[in-house]
Amino acid sequence: MLNQHSLEEIAEIHNLLGDIKKEYENGIKPILIKNSPKLFKNPHTVPKLKKIQINRGLGAAAQNTNILKKNIEEFEKITGQKPVVTKAKKAIAGFKIREEMELGLTVTLRGEKMYTFLTKLLFFTFAQIRDFRGLSLRSFDKSGNYTLGLKEQLIFPEIEYDDVDQIQGFTITIVMDHGSPKYRSESIDKILNGMILFKFLRFPLNDCGYYDKYESFADINRAWDKKRLLKRKRWSQAQD
Questions:
Q1: Which GO terms describe its cellular component (predicted)?
Q2: List of domains in the chain
Q3: Which of 1, 2, 11, 121 has its CA at a distance of 20 to 30 angstroms from the CA of residue 180?
Q4: Among 89, 123, 86, 87, which Cα is nearest to 108's?
C-alpha cells in the first residue's frame, strides 16, 4: 500500500538518485557553490562523502567458528566486500577478554561500493524499518561524521528470513571529507556541512527544522555553549 507518493513519483525519485555519485558531482556540488559562494569559495571545501564504515560486535560468540563464518557471509552479501575481523588490542580480565581475541567484524566502503550501499540504504533499507521516524541530527559527532544503528539484518534485501539464525544489528558510520580551511574547522561548521549534504542527498532526517528558530550561526553557537555549560554543571553536581 502506498502512502504519500504515486508510482510515477517513486520512479522519478529512483531515477534522480539512481547514481548518487553522478548526482553529487553534476547537481549537488555546483548548487552548493552557486548558492553559497562565500562559504564554498574553493570547490575542494564542499563537503563530500569519504567512506562508510559498517561494524558489528559479536563478543564471545566470535570464538564460535560457525557463527563467525555466518556473520562474515552476511557482511559480504550486504556490503559486497569481505569484512575484517576485529580483535582486542589488550586483555581485560574482568570481561574475560584476551589480547588479540576476535570480537567482531568491520567493513570500510569507498568509491563505487560506498555509493551503491548508500543508494540501497536510502531507497530500500530505511523503508523496511518498522515504525521508522527518521534520523536524528543529534547523531553527528564533533568531526561532522554521522553514526546510526540498525537493529536487524533482515531489512537488507540480500538477506533471506530462513537463512537467519539470530537477529543482529550493525553500527554504520558515514565519514565526511570537509576540506575546510582552519578558520572554518570548528565542530559546528563540520556538523552544519554534514547537515547540508544530507539534506541534498535526501536523507530522512526527522528534525530538520530544529535550527529554523535561529537567525544566524552565532545564535546556534550560543545555544550550544549554553547546553554545554548546563551539562558541565549537572555533571559537577552529580560528583558532589
A1: chloroplast; ribonucleoprotein complex; ribosome
A2: 49-179 (3.30.1440.10)
A3: 121
A4: 86
